[in-house]
From TrEMBL, chains A, B:
Keyword Transferase among record annotations: yes
Organism: Acinetobacter silvestris
Domain Polyphosphate kinase-2-related, residue spans: 27-224, 257-470
Protein name (record): Phosphate--AMP phosphotransferase
SUPFAM superfamilies xrefs: P-loop containing nucleoside triphosphate hydrolases
InterPro entries found in the cross-reference section: P-loop_NTPase, PPK2-related
Origin organism lineage: Bacteria, Pseudomonadati, Pseudomonadota, Gammaproteobacteria, Moraxellales
Length: 472, 472
């Protein structure tokens, strides 16, 4: 049971309102600062227990301009979507508060209660574990999550159903289960108790107490401003740099062989991508001029642009910086595209952000696990993730840089930044080595394509895609 | 026929690529400046005419980080959505380029070709008119729209269908009509000719010419940087200020009568809102402290927060300022909520933005028509729009301001801004008078609730909602 449930007592409403508003403004002013946070409030519970009224009352006590309320009908989990995907758009920016009526837990309950295809216990518990891990990742990234369950005993619920207006009855039916069914009610209670131990459970019988308890809990949460740590104590264990990264092969392919092989493989790859019923995400990382753009061009060669989407990742924008680092990737994956290609990715966190110091020590060191969880969630939901690191030697990079500078319409590809990055070549190699060592998982393995020859590298990329899609 | 179709000749590819990249960078640098613009490229056409290839080629010639491509399957128009609603999220910010494969014209064609419920000719033409008006509004607000149709004669199309791979055939079928059906082809050609007179029509038979013609047209469009006008020549005709605005009645309602009436009406309003099958949007404008918050509270009294959404509108954020003024409202209306309430609205353009000089003369003077078109589109698509202006006298405002300042938890509602706005009382009255005169349409009438008594005003608001919903 949460501490707040014990300490609760009624307070003067005007004073409570004043405290809430002041806490809101304090939160708002943390934006862009080291104690910045935003607050997500998950609200679930028994129908008619008064969660709607409590939120409505809260809205009246606070400054409504800085409280966003999102409410929708619980949805069944679908095979191709992670539990967090429908909600990422609503993850608030630093300084903001977001109430989520529909949330991943209500979806979980709805899915588990769905008669024709219920979740088994192991699945249910594994979902809870993933959800808690996701919430922890949010918290680490300045988004605090608090959870409130509005409860109502069976008899009180039946009484409220009896007293209800006809139009309300119709509406409540749309949004929930059959609340006249005792067996369903009991199942629901049993299920929700598997996850509500870190929730505030509010008894919905007394209206005044209920609304105050809810508001006071939020006030309490608003006041907890974190002081984000920046360093870690444990010594970092740098992975050894695989030879492939600094000494790629130079197996050359001649133009004729390349052309023939390319023709065959681009066709095969497009067929494979097209017919695979899963979502496919193909990602590219590598030193500047390693050939990411050229490889992508060959993957999509035989596809129509309506069949895929390419995201070219640059530095984050201000509104993105005010949200968890992964947020801009979460939100890019809510579209319906079945084939998605990333030219640079979320691995920027442990590459450029680490090397350039944009991410603090604790942030990039934590990111490996965050990324692994993110990729696990995706691959658990009918998604194939194919990750490429394109490696070239330092000399080959110089040759390519100079070649780019010599060609007017390629000059835009090479900037002072690229030459500057090159000076930190060894730091990038170290970062890449750590990344490969820590994120090369069974469900999302890395393909290191280490070849100074462009032709050969492109062919290897296409072959790796076929391999990962299990097409021979 | 467009001028570009006549002037076309093949160019050196590298030079074309260089010019495109330079034009992209120039466009990018216009951001936040007086010649700012973004570019939307609508792409449609006959299947297999090569629009996909042309876009792919374009992507290779430009800097792909600054070219976004959105592609989806054409959708049928739905009763409750305007033609622009599925696309507003993709309207680019100043300096950006967005290709839209799926767009309002492809939806129109798909809807018109849909056999079970085809659009009649009048409807079809009326859609085209609305689309052109919408595009003109975009252009006036820094978003240039160019349109390209990829064409292919019947025989060439059949030949390409014959030569196609099996996996491609399957895919193309998903995304289009039956391209073996000559009658359908002819109908489509007849229909598209009703709107393609201001499109670039590209013959898809020759691949090289096709790709270059497309890219050159975009280069041409990128180079047209507007110099946005700020003033207008014609003298502005200020509307007379209706007496209700400055001299509202003070018909008082006693507390007991108010309570009884309120109870009856809140129930009636929630029933009416709930059972109406249309979307309902209720908007509030009025001087500070006119009672907008209090009125909204009573509307939602008997509703559950899952049934409605309230948007409290504050000053726009940076990323919103880089898009058309209406954009932040367009995007708020794509959610599925059937009851939406706005505490302040798009009328800010002709109220605060006009009075404070945030909008230039030409911008706010143009806004009345833009707003009328926007509201017409909504109400043509099963939406009821109920607009309130709450009027109080200048003295009453002062009384309320002072009362707010005296109560700690209401003090946040009153700021230096409010006192400053009060000094421009007459300017706001003039702006409100013009707004009422120019946007009081048959499809979206204004309700001016002019009463210094809060109780009476709230009751009038509820009655007006019932009246507009045709409930007695």
């Amino acid at each position: 049971m949460l501490e707040q449930q014990l300490q609760f007592s009624l307070r003067d409403e005007d004073q409570l309102s004043l405290d809430l508003i002041e806490a809101q403004y304090t939160l708002k002013n943390t934006r862009d600062r080291n104690n910045a946070k935003s607050l997500v409030i998950l609200v679930s519970g028994i129908e008619l227990a008064g969660k709607g009224e409590a939120v409505k009352q809260l809205r009246e006590w606070v400054d409504p301009r800085y409280l966003h309320v999102k409410a929708d009908i619980p949805r069944l989990f679908t095979e191709k979507q992670t539990f967090w995907q429908p909600y990422t758009r609503f993850i608030p920016a630093e300084g903001q508060i977001q109430v989520m009526f529909g949330n991943w837990y209500s979806d979980l309950l709805t899915t588990a209660m769905h008669v024709s295809k219920p979740l088994d216990e192991t699945m249910f518990e594994s979902y809870i574990e993933c959800m808690r891990a996701y919430e922890q990742d949010l918290k680490n990234n300045h988004v605090d999550v608090i959870k409130v369950w509005f409860d109502l005993p069976w008899k009180a619920l039946q009484k409220r159903l009896d007293d209800m207006d006809v139009s309300e009855q119709r509406w409540h039916k749309l949004h929930g289960l059959d609340w006249r069914n005792k067996k369903q009610y009991d199942t629901l209670q049993k299920l929700r108790q598997k996850f509500t131990d870190d929730w505030l459970v509010i008894d919905g019988e007394n209206e005044v107490l209920r609304n105050q308890q809810f508001a006071q809990y939020i006030l309490h949460a608003l006041k907890q401003l974190p002081k984000h740590k920046t360093t870690v104590r444990t010594k970092w264990k740098q992975a050894a740099i695989p030879e492939a990264l600094f000494n790629p092969s130079i197996e050359m392919m001649d133009a004729a062989a390349y052309k023939a092989e390319l023709k065959k493989l681009t066709r095969k790859v497009s067929d494979a991508l097209r017919t695979d019923s899963r979502n496919v995400i193909i990602t590219f990382e590598g030193m500047d001029a390693a050939g990411k753009g050229g490889a992508i061009k060959r993957i999509v060669k035989k596809l129509d642009p309506r069949e895929y989407e390419i995201h070219t990742i640059a530095a984050p924008e201000k509104f993105e910086l005010r949200r968890p680092y992964m947020w801009r990737f979460w939100t890019k994956l809510t579209e319906t595209h079945e084939i998605t290609i990333f030219d640079r990715t979320w691995y920027g966190r442990v590459l450029v952000e680490r090397v350039e110091g944009f991410a603090k020590q604790i942030e990039w060191q934590r990111a490996y696990e965050e990324i692994n969880r993110f990729e696990k969630d995706l691959t658990d939901n009918q998604t194939i993730l194919i990750k490429f690191w394109l490696a070239i030697s330092k000399d080959e990079q110089e040759t390519r840089f100079k070649a780019r500078e010599a060609v007017p319409h390629k000059r835009f590809k090479i900037t002072a930044d690229d030459w500057r990055n090159r000076k930190r070549w060894d730091d990038y190699l170290n970062a890449a080595a750590d990344m490969l060592a820590r994120t090369n998982t069974e469900y999302a393995p890395w393909y290191v394509i280490a070849n100074n020859d462009k032709y050969s590298a492109r062919i290897q990329v296409l072959q790796a895609i076929l391999k990962q899609l299990k097409v021979d």
